[in-house]
Design a protein that fits this description.
The chain has four helices and no strands. Helix 3 runs antiparallel to helix 4. The longest helix has 18 residues. The relative contact order is 0.15.
């Protein structure tokens, strides 16, 4: 099975892509939806294809936080009238917790 065109990355960036998308996929599965997971994968792939890729520097969890945050802000993810809504998005970004386990299980207001 071939990857969707949006998920194609250079071979030298494949491991970084997989590391970041493992974090964003897990976060989206737990707190958001598959649409955000797909968008996160597409954005990560686009950053991997950029020459030179900014993903070479920095930690995967920081990039995963930034990717989720960027997508959330342009899609009003912190707006209580929108679905899905993630009130704790700023907590995640401000603390740069591990994307897969750093958030509380209950919503914070």
């Amino acid at each position: 099975m071939t990857k969707p065109a949006g998920d194609q990355v250079p071979k030298q960036m494949q491991s970084k892509f997989e590391e970041i998308t493992a974090l964003t996929d897990a976060f989206c599965d737990k707190y958001l939806n598959t649409e955000y997971a797909d968008l996160s994968r597409q954005l990560t792939a686009a950053l991997c294809r950029k020459r030179p890729s900014p993903l070479v520097k920095g930690q995967a969890k920081s990039w995963a936080c930034g990717i989720i945050h960027a997508l959330g802000m342009v899609n009003f993810l912190d707006d209580s009238s929108q679905t899905p809504q993630l009130i704790v998005l700023n907590l995640l970004i401000n603390n740069q917790e591990d994307v897969t386990g750093g958030l509380p299980d209950e919503k914070t207001n």
